[in-house]
Amino acid sequence: MPLQLPNPPSGTSELIAQALRRVASAGGAAERVTQVDDPSLLGAALPHRVYHIGSDDIVNGLKLEQAELTAWRYLIVYGQQVIAATELACDASGENLQFSSLDTGPFAQATRDVVGRAETLPEVIAGSYELRVVKAPSVYAMAVWLKNLTGPDDIVIPMQPESVATGFSPASGGGASTEQSPESFLGGLRPAASTSGRFDSSPSDDTGSVGAGVSTPTPTPTPTPTPTSTPTPPRFPPDTFNRQAFIKSYANLVARTWVDNRYLQELLANPQPTLVQAGLRMVPGAVLRIIQHELTGMGRMEDQVNAWIEGARTGLYDLFLPIKPRGIEVSGGAAEGGDACCCCSPCCCCT
């Protein structure tokens, strides 16, 4: 029979509509999602739950059914074309939804491709399977999880989007884009998971405070606002923003994108969790705009700092992401999540 789709909580459609209205003014790829010839053809399709599994979970042999439920995910379609995917963060019961992210990267279409393939599997045709997605951000892995509703034999199909051709080569478990058991999938991720936790790029300052590290758990979202209201994310208390730690984390993030294309693609595909792991905090329910650009030498680091402070007030963040100039070398530590050399990182030339 066809893949089973779970019933999302009430109010989900209105929450997605609110999110799309908010990103309509964000510019860049996010704006292009809503700037279409016939908005009436925009829709949200294929609802499914998203589960998260961390490096420690993989190394310690956690079962897939023990993965943490973190979000509901929809494909945003324009007619028959998949143009994005959106996630709504949820609590452990799948309730209290709040807009989390809009992904215009390759994993949106990859989801549709893998689902189309899954629907032709003899096991799926003859059985009853629920569509899910599992993410392992620390090893750049994302897969469709076909949960068997009548037995123990689940099926996992890793996603291998077109970005592999550009140098992004995520860990894929027991075989790239092949149907496999949960045990084979997680076993194939174990070597990469073992090495991903060997460094900690968490920012620190003289007071001893430490930012988010690689294994930062997903925070519990706050309750969803009523459908008739426009969400106004709470701003951080002024004393929680550490300017020095933010600049250090931001510089390391940009430097790492210059030396690790896999990390750059992960940032573009899954921006908010990647930023949290890098130590760049955002208020719950925020919208993120990534602005890629050439370095001009005219910008100031203070512009990025102010943009982040403003994002905490408005819920709309700008991340300036400069493209690596030719002839610039970055210290090797940045590739492993360590500190970039100050003289060759974007810490003083953010735009």
pLDDT under 50 segments (min length 5)? 162-170, 197-239, 340-351
Radius of gyration: 20 Å
Helix and strand composition category: alpha+beta
Biggest sheet strand order reads 4-3-2-1-5-6-7
Total number of β-strand segments?
A: 9
Number of helices: 10
Largest sheet: 7 strands, mixed
Q: What is the overall pLDDT average?
A: 75
Per DSSP, what share of the residues sits in E-state strands of 2 or more residues?
A: 15-25%
The backbone outline, from C-alpha atoms, is: globular
The end-to-end span amounts to 53 Å
Helix share of residues?
Answer: 25-40%
How would you explain this protein's 3D organization?
This protein is an alpha+beta fold. The protein folds into two domains: 12-190, no CATH class; 238-348, no CATH class. Helices cover 30% and strands 21% of the residues. It has a seven-stranded mixed sheet with strand order 4-3-2-1-5-6-7, with helices on both faces. Helix 7 crosses helix 8 (261-269) and helix 8 crosses helix 9 (271-278). The longest helix is centred in the C-terminal third of the chain and has 17 residues, at 243-259. It is globular, with a radius of gyration of 20 Å. Residues 162-170, 197-239 and 340-351 have low confidence and may be disordered.
